[in-house]
Amino acid sequence: MRTCSSFRTAACTALISLVAASAAVGQTASPPAAAPAAQAQTAPPPAAAPAAQAQTAPPPIAFEVASIKPSAPLDPAQIMSGQAHLGMHVNAARVDLGFTPLMGLVTTAYKVKPFQVTGPAWMNSTMFDIVAKLPEGATKEQIPEMLQALLADRFKMTMHRENKEHSEFNLLVAKGGVKLKEAEGEPEPIPAADEPAKPGEMTSDSPEGRVRMRMGKNGMEYSGPGVNVKVSMTNGMMHMEATRITMKAFAEMLSQFAGNPVVDKTEIKGSYQLTMDFSMEELVALARANGAMAGMGGGGPAAAPGQGPANAASDPSGPSVFAMVQQFGLKLVPLKTPVDFIVIDHIEKTPTEN
Q1: Measuring CA to CA, how many Å separate 157 from each of 223, 290, 309, 326?
Q2: CB-CB contact of 275 with 245 (8 Å)
């Protein structure tokens, strides 16, 4: 989940993008331009519009009330016990976001991914706890729009959109065909939004449903829509075993290690089993690039949004992640494609008072 932090330095880095917000960019309508004064004086009066058309556009929907506080550093003991305040939870009219980076608020509000946001690097490591109340009649599908209003009102954020070319990778089937084993059994049922977390379990709500993370002495287990992954650390290496993962979820995961977005173009349906191993050096570099060491006193500033540790790695024979996918009969092919970006013109690091 985007909002997890300290344990993302090791296991969670591989799982951040699996609960990312939808990449669909919400479009907002621009108000009509005012007519020039000269035309307004000479033009004939317009016909009377029907009453429904004559009404002005309703104001943007906003939270009825919202409390914003800087997040306290994460407590490793709370993480291990499943009591850490992480992720987004929606229960009836209450919206609760714990240890959420400012970047996470923007990506959720505008339904984009971090690489699509151009803004200050500190947005990755400035964390907040937010508790808000939905207005009467509002739905959870309107939360992104309400977060836009909150960013403008409390963080004084202004932005504009740009469309420009961006590097990405297509995940394709390599010559010789796929070498993947199908997942066994049935997937775990997706828990209801109001289902309480089990002892030692952390949960967060994603657009596809609730996700769960369980911590143990030897690692962690992550489960959610389309994925079930176990992660352990041994001899300075992270071993990741996916007992069930879709190609779409696998591409999202690879995006964190490739440094640029990975798009599933395999046309492979169903869920599969796979294992991957990453060195501690790769994990630490990735954690710093995502601002993951911010809550625990980790060194080094976060990289600017969209500037991951492997951005320069467009050669599939270079970093281990490119060679790694080849063992599954897959390949990563670099290309450039037009992408919509959110460009932040101004944003305050400290929100206005509650």
Answers
A1: 34, 21, 27, 43
A2: no
Please give the C-alpha separations between residue 47 and each of 17, 34, 50, 168, 175, in angstroms, as whole numbers: 53, 18, 9, 51, 66
Contacts of residue 93, Cβ cutoff 8 Å, sequence gap at least 6 = 133, 134, 136, 138
Identity of the amino acid at 16: I
Which residue is associated with the tokens 């060195």? Answer: 279
The closest of 216, 212, 219, 213 to 238, measured between CA atoms, is: 219
Identify the three-state secondary structure at position 124. helix
pTM: 0.66
Question: Which structural domain range is residue 313 located in?
Answer: 6-21+62-186+199-346
Alpha helices in the chain (DSSP H): 37-42, 51-54, 76-81, 102-110, 143-154, 247-258, 280-289, 320-326
Domain contains 351: no
User: What's the total number of domains in the chain?
Assistant: 1
Q: Which residues, in sequence order, are bridge partners of residue 264? A: 171
Residue 50: inside a domain: no
192-227 pLDDT per residue, tens: 655 666 656 666 666 666 777 777 667 788 787 778
Pick from 232, 264, 290: which is nearest to 103 by CA?
Answer: 290
